[in-house]
Amino acid sequence: MKISDIQIPVFVIHELIIRLQEIDPLVGEYKHHYFSAEEAVVETSHLQLRFPMYLLRQQFQDPELISHDELRQQLPFFLRA
After folding, report:
1. How many CB atoms within 10 Å of residue 77?
2. Residue from 42, 40, 30 nearest 7 by CA
3. How far apart are CA 34 and CA 24, in angstroms?
């Protein structure tokens, strides 16, 4: 099933941005988003984020399962060691 076949409430995206802002305030404020085949592409006032489908589902169903490190990996400037 493609992400475009599923309705993702916009608050899920806002919640992920808020959580990322707690890690780094330079994430910026939500501007808009669109869905590609497998992810949500989110524009903030400072950068572009890409949230994979599994992360959107997890934030919607059980956000406590998303670790701090997993969130940090969504930042485009996160250095994967």
Report:
1. 7
2. 40
3. 23
